[in-house]
Design a protein that fits this description.
Elements: E1 2-8, E2 11-17, H1 27-34, E3 44-49, E4 56-62, H2 72-84, E5 91-96, E6 99-105, E7 110-113, E8 121-123, E9 126-130, E10 134-139, H3 148-156, E11 168-176, E12 179-186, E13 191-193, H4 197-211, E14 217-221, E15 224-233, E16 237-245, E17 248-254
Parallel strand pairs: 2-3, 4-5, 10-11, 12-14
Antiparallel strand pairs: 1-2, 1-17, 3-4, 5-6, 6-7, 7-16, 8-9, 9-10, 11-12, 12-13, 14-15, 15-16
Length: 258
């Protein structure tokens, strides 16, 4: 089986051209491929499939082999993959688990339109919203030293979020009037990732509403820099949300299943 490895700000994915729909690996086999010691190593695995009325369909699996919710950086990487395959040129129109998406293809950046976000919930000093995946957001000081893995895991597995099978958790520091530093614990990876597209989107919207930051919000992650632009407000919801940043092929290869 031929595979490709792509990364967007350090969020890395195994990508497979499945337009013939021959992919039939189990959750255990997908988890093995994503394992960083015994497999290829990735935060998730994506299939590019055919879909009527769209350029392609995105199917996303978490690193533990389970079917995932929307992945923003994954979506950007899959658009780059589609452009590399000459399926799309300057614009892409694809369908994912959370509905249709459009994306703009630049020389070194992909701009992905995210789903509309109707609301943000506030719980004391913490926030929650769904940007295609569920996201908890908390502002902290000196986020580079924060215990993201352990605090994130405690929130992810807390009783409050069990009805939705747990949440992703983002820890955010405001660096200046237009820039935030975001670190994310990802459900399905069960660890911190270098970047999370739906997570930084959630953090940007929360920063706009509760920290007065205007669109586009500039974002620093462990894996690089992103930007989130949007229209709307807390009362009427947010729309025209675009996640912009780099997406690159790292390598390609073949793997033989045993």
């Amino acid at each position: 089986m031929q595979f490709y490895k792509y990364q967007g700000t350090g969020n890395d994915f195994i990508v497979i051209d499945d337009r013939n729909e021959q992919f039939n690996l189990s959750a255990e086999e997908i988890a093995h491929l994503c394992h960083r010691r015994f497999g290829i190593g990735a935060d998730g695995l994506m299939l590019l499939q055919l879909a009527p009325d769209f350029d392609f369909k995105m199917v996303y699996y978490n690193a533990d082999g389970t079917l995932g919710t929307m992945c923003g950086n994954g979506g950007r990487c899959l658009v780059r993959f589609a452009a590399d395959l000459d399926i799309v040129k300057e614009k892409a129109n694809f369908i994912a688990v959370d509905g249709p998406h459009t994306a703009l293809v630049g020389a070194d950046k992909i701009s992905l339109q995210m789903m509309d976000v109707p609301s943000i919930d506030q719980h004391a000093d913490d926030y929650f919203t769904n940007t295609g995946s569920p996201h908890f957001v908390r502002f902290v000081k000196q986020v580079q030293f924060y215990d993201v893995k352990n605090v994130g895991a405690s929130i992810r597995y807390s009783e409050a979020y069990q009805p939705i099978q747990g949440t992703n958790a983002n820890f955010v520091e405001k660096l200046d009037s237009q820039t935030i530093f975001v670190r994310t614990y990802e459900r399905g990876v069960e660890d911190e990732t270098y970047s999370c597209g739906t997570g930084v989107t959630a953090a940007a919207l929360v920063a706009h509403v509760f920290q007065g930051m205007n669109s586009p919000v500039q974002i620093k992650t462990l894996g690089g820099e992103l930007a989130v632009s949007f229209q709307g407000n807390l009362q009427e919801g947010f729309f025209e949300i675009f996640l912009t940043g780099p997406a690159k092929q790292v390598f390609k290869g073949e793997i033989t299943s045993h």
